[in-house]
Automatic annotation (TrEMBL):
SMART domains: AraC_E_bind (SM00871), HTH_ARAC (SM00342). The lineage of its organism: Bacteria, Bacillati, Bacillota, Bacilli, Bacillales. This is AraC family transcriptional regulator. It comes from Neobacillus massiliamazoniensis. GO terms for molecular function: DNA-binding transcription factor activity; sequence-specific DNA binding. Pfam families: Cass2, HTH_18. Gene3D superfamilies: Homeodomain-like, Regulatory factor, effector binding domain. Keywords: DNA-binding, Transcription, Transcription regulation. The keyword Secreted does not apply. Residues 8-106 form the HTH araC/xylS-type domain.
Length: 286
C-alpha cells in the first residue's frame, strides 16, 4: 500500500469510528506507522492535531443533527462525546460562534469541517533539491523539553522554546560547541515509546564530539540512511513549506519510507529571517 493510500485509510478509520473512543494507536495502525510519526505527518499536512480534527468533525456533525432533527440537545451532546450540556455548549460556541439553542432558532451561521480527502500534488515547476546519504551514529548535545502532540501543544511550545534559547544564550553556546560534521544548530524531534504515543522530546542541540559540557544533555542519533533536503528562505515559513512539500510530494512519488528514528532540522549561522537564509531537513529513510 502506498503512502497516500495508507494515510487515507487511517482517516477513513477515524470517520467510521467517529462516535467511539478512538485511540491514536489504532488510528496509526491503519497507516502501518508509529503513533508518533502518524501524528507528526498529520499535523504537517493539515496544520492541526488529530485530536483537533476529530473534535471539529464531531461538532460539525452535531450541528447538522441540531439543524435537521428534533433530538434533544443533551442526547446530541452525549452522542458526540460530551458529558454535560454545558461542556457541549462551550465547545460548540468555540467552533461555530453560536450556541446549540441558536441553531434551533436559525439565528446564526455554522462552521462545517468536511471529511478529509488526501490529494497528492506532483509539481514539476518547483523542484526539490535533496540527496540521500548514509551516516554512522553520532552524538548531539543540547537542551530538551517534553511536549504533547495530542492537543497541538508542540505547535506553540516549540517556537517558544527557540525564543528561550536565543534569549538565555544557549543558542550562542551551541554554535560555539559545534565541532561535528553537521554544521549548525539542530532541532531534533524524538518520539516516545508506544506507551506514551502522545508525547515527544524536542531537542535544540548541536553535533559535538567530546565530553558533554556542564548544563547540557547528550543524545545519540542512530546510524541511518538520510534524505537531506535543502531549504531556502526566511523562517519559519520556508521550513514549514518544505516539510509539507516533502510529505505531500516527495514521499508519495519516491520509493522511500520514513525509517522511524529522530528527524533533524539544521539551522546554519546567519540571519534566519533573510530571504536567502539556508537550512536543511534531515529525514531517516528506508
Amino acid at each position: 500500500m502506498g503512502w497516500v493510500e495508507s494515510l487515507q485509510k487511517a482517516i477513513d478509520y477515524i470517520e467510521e469510528h467517529l462516535l467511539e473512543n478512538i485511540t491514536i494507536e489504532n488510528i496509526a495502525k491503519q497507516a502501518n506507522v508509529s503513533p508518533f510519526h502518524f501524528q507528526r505527518t498529520f499535523s504537517i499536512l493539515t496544520d492541526i492535531s488529530i485530536g483537533e480534527y476529530i473534535r471539529r468533525r464531531r461538532l460539525s456533525l452535531a450541528a447538522q443533527e441540531l439543524a435537521h432533527t428534533s433530538s434533544k440537545i443533551i442526547e446530541i451532546a452525549l452522542k458526540y462525546g460530551y458529558d454535560t450540556p454545558e461542556a457541549f455548549t462551550k465547545a460548540f460556541r468555540r467552533q461555530h460562534g453560536i450556541t446549540p439553542s441558536q441553531v434551533r432558532n436559525y439565528s446564526g451561521m455554522l462552521n462545517s469541517y468536511n471529511r478529509l480527502m488526501i490529494q497528492v500534488s506532483l509539481k514539476g515547476a518547483e523542484p526539490m533539491k535533496y540527496k540521500v546519504l548514509e551516516k554512522e551514529s553520532f552524538q548531539v548535545v543540547g537542551v530538551k523539553r517534553e511536549f504533547s502532540g495530542a492537543n497541538g501543544e508542540n505547535l506553540s511550545g516549540i517556537p517558544k522554546m527557540w525564543d528561550d534559547v536565543h534569549a538565555d544564550g544557549t543558542n550562542d553556546l551551541l554554535v560555539s560547541l559545534n565541532n561535528g560534521e553537521i554544521k549548525g544548530v539542530l532541532g531534533v524531534c524524538v518520539g516516545k515509546p508506544n506507551t506514551q504515543p502522545q508525547l515527544i522530546d524536542y531537542w535544540i542541540a548541536t553535533d559535538f564530539k567530546g565530553d558533554v559540557p556542564e548544563g547540557l544533555l547528550q543524545l545519540e542519533i542512530p546510524a541511518a540512511k538520510w534524505g537531506v533536503f535543502e531549504v531556502h528562505g526566511a523562517m519559519p515559513d520556508a521550513m514549514q513549506k518544505a516539510w509539507k512539500q516533502i510529505f505531500s510530494e516527495w514521499f508519495p512519488s519516491s520509493h522511500y519510507e520514513h525509517a522511524g528514528s529522530p528527524e533533524l532540522e539544521v539551522y546554519s549561522d546567519g540571519d534566519p529571517w533573510s530571504p536567502d537564509y539556508y537550512s536543511e531537513i534531515w529525514i531517516p529513510v528506508k
